[in-house]
Specification:
192 residues, mainly alpha, 64% helix, BOD1/SHG1 domain-containing protein, BOD1/SHG1_dom
């Protein structure tokens, strides 16, 4: 079951799936709490900017928009951009549901291109699902094996046990508190 990925993407876009998905994401964002938080931060920032410089209202909308955009991009804390980035990360990049939705759409397109019947397609999807579950299980066991906490109890493997022979020494004294040793004053050699 192989077709050209560029062809699949082209068909995905031509069928309107890309626009439909994008519209769904934007609508979901507008309905979310993240959107209201973003609008509130923008409103506070704009009000502060107007309070600092009331003449900004006399400028045309294009200049004002450019000033606001510049301030958002150049702000030190980037909290406004972080709100959007976190939402994108959570709802799109890390979302298994979103990935499954896209994968199902592309499989459906692929099925139509190759002329596969519904029964065969369900069989192929089941095989793919099984392969994904095995991969997920393999990743979990790999994670557990790589990050297993080593036991500090000696179980007959003395070379694995971590021992502290001496406590570390720290020099906490302040140099100003130490009594200064008086150096012997050297008498300069004088020639007569």
């Amino acid at each position: 079951m192989s077709t050209d990925p560029k062809e699949l993407i082209s068909i995905y876009k031509k069928n309107g799936n890309f626009d439909k998905t994008r519209k769904t994401l934007v609508d979901n964002f507008k309905k979310s709490q993240t959107s209201s938080n973003l609008q509130l931060k923008l409103k506070v920032m704009i009000e502060q900017k107007i309070k600092n410089d009331p003449n900004i209202l006399l400028k045309n909308k294009g200049k004002m928009a450019a000033l606001i955009q510049g301030e958002i991009l150049n702000s030190k804390d980037n909290s406004i951009l972080n709100i959007v980035d976190k939402d994108i990360q959570d709802k799109i990049i890390d979302s298994d549901d979103f990935h499954k939705m896209i994968r199902d759409d592309i499989y459906d397109i692929k099925r139509k291109i190759l002329g596969i019947s519904d029964e065969e397609f369900e069989k192929i999807k089941a095989e793919e699902r099984e392969k994904l579950e095995k991969e997920k299980a393999r990743r979990q066991t790999s994670y557990k094996n790589n990050f297993k906490v080593k036991s500090l109890v000696n179980n007959g493997t003395s070379h694995l046990v971590h021992r502290v022979n001496k406590p570390p020494k720290f020099n906490i004294k302040d140099k100003k508190e130490e009594p200064k040793k008086e150096e012997k004053k050297k008498i300069p050699f004088m020639m007569y």
